[in-house]
Amino acid sequence: MDTSAKHSPTNRPRVVGVGELLWDLLPTGRQMGGAPANFIYHARSLGADAHLLSRVGTDALGVEILGKIEALGLPTAGIQTDPTRPTGTVAVELAADGQPIFNIHDNAAWDNIQLDDAAQALVSTADAIYFGSLAQRSHTSSATIRALLSIVPSGALRVFDANLRQEFFSRELLHDSLSSANVLKINEAELDIMAGLFLLGRSREEQLTELVRRYNFLLVACTRGAEGSILCDGRRLCRGGGCHVVVQDTIGAGDSFTAAMTMGLLCNLSMEEISELANGVAAHVSSQRGATPGMPPRFRNQLQQHAKEVCYAS
């Protein structure tokens, strides 16, 4: 599975995530969230030169979340500030099995991401760009994402995380996003929705194979919670078992899976190696509270040991 990655001058793959940066308002207090932000944090933990493109308000929550980003060691150059819109917030409840239930508030700063020079400079040298469906709920941010996808290098990974939330998606939006991507990450509930919208087959194998065929994906990953995942590249499927852990909550677990999968692709790991790494990372995040727990060194070591591309500075 050769992605022919050409890494950034740091000798690490440059990975850029674009979309929502927000506060998850949990019963236990607020925590930084947003799938692209979680993804970038975990990609950096695994060795990427990782950058987030988003927008926050000039309010107290915006100042606080920028401080949080810096405390996590992430660059803030790609995060814009909005003088009129508030920093995004999401009310989160946890079901008995640890699964989050989201209520995403409207008219947030991340709905107004602009196509500025900093965003274009980062994306023009990216080895991978990550985007989702949620940030495309507004015309402005959607147009910015489309413009950035048009200038990413031709050999880069374009990773689409379906991340279907509430009513913030449509068949047209999904088709356009799938057509713009070459890697897809989806969970079983989202795959059920897509199977209905796009008249895919009945079995998981048929559904994933058909998505690869229609959209010419390098790889499609379907996460299945405690049951692990299924990866499909159109020629074969790889089933990865889940890692048995005591679940604290699953917030950010899918995003960490996508980060590990992306890094595995950039380093030319096999499907089996990607599956083992990504399921292990996601299980670790599920065993911790919050979306951005510390990452044990064993995962970065595992990636480096299997890497068939130079993914780390010497």
Portion in strands: 15-25%
Strand order of the largest sheet: 5-4-1-8-9-10-11-12-13
Tell me, rounded to a whole number, the average pLDDT. Answer: 91
Quote the CATH topology.
UDP-N-acetylmuramoyl-L-alanine:D-glutamate ligase
Q: Percent range for helical residues?
A: 25-40%
CATH-defined architecture = 3-Layer(aba) Sandwich
> Mind telling me the C-alpha Rg?
18 Å
CATH superfamily: Ribokinase
Termini separation: 25 Å
Number of strands: 13
By helix and strand content, what is the structural category?
Answer: alpha/beta
Please outline the major beta sheet. 9 strands, mixed
* Tally of structural domains: 1
What does the overall shape look like? globular
Structural write-up:
The protein has one domain: UDP-N-acetylmuramoyl-L-alanine:D-glutamate ligase (3-Layer(aba) Sandwich), CATH 3.40.1190.20. The protein has ten helices and 13 strands. Strand 4, helix 2 and strand 5 form a beta-alpha-beta unit. Helix 1 crosses helix 8, helix 8 packs antiparallel against helix 9 and helix 9 runs antiparallel to helix 10.
